[in-house]
Design brief:
By secondary structure, the protein is mainly α. Helix content is 74%, strand content 0%. The protein is globular.
Length: 142
């Protein structure tokens, strides 16, 4: 319950850029899951060799961990890039894993993605990278 309160507080204070990063992370996870065909892997045709992991669970998992990507982005934006930030991101990642397992009934749907995306979101949340994102969005997305 304490984590839910903390995540809600972070979400309320997060900027639009932080929300954008978290949303992009979720969208990437959903797009990967829906990419078809992927023989032997979860896609729109079925679960492949992952009998405990239908597409619906992967999508539910992505939604469940999005708030933690937001937490990672908001935390990173005002932190120094150092071992302390890495430790905080790891702690948030472990909380995301717990939320993922709760959302999926114990199935590991995105444990590796939480780790990788968390390490990418941290430096992207720094203001310099947000300026690059803004420039890209203006130029290519209108």
């Amino acid at each position: 319950m304490q984590q839910a309160i903390l995540t809600t507080q972070i979400a309320e204070s997060a900027g639009l850029e932080h929300r954008y990063l978290a949303s992009l992370a979720r969208q990437a996870l959903v797009a990967e899951a829906q990419l078809t065909p992927k023989p032997g892997l979860v896609d729109r045709r079925g679960s492949g060799s992952h009998t405990d992991l239908p597409l619906e669970i992967k999508i539910r998992s992505a939604a469940a961990i999005e708030p933690f990507f937001l937490h990672m982005a908001a935390t990173s934006a005002s932190a120094g890039v150092d071992a302390a930030l890495r430790a905080v991101l790891a702690a948030i990642g472990r909380e995301a894993e717990s939320a993922m397992f709760n959302a999926t009934g114990g199935t590991n749907s995105h444990k590796g993605a939480i780790w990788i995306l968390g390490l990418l979101i941290g430096p992207l949340a720094l203001s310099y990278f947000f300026e690059l994102i803004r420039m890209y969005r203006e130029e290519y997305l209108g």
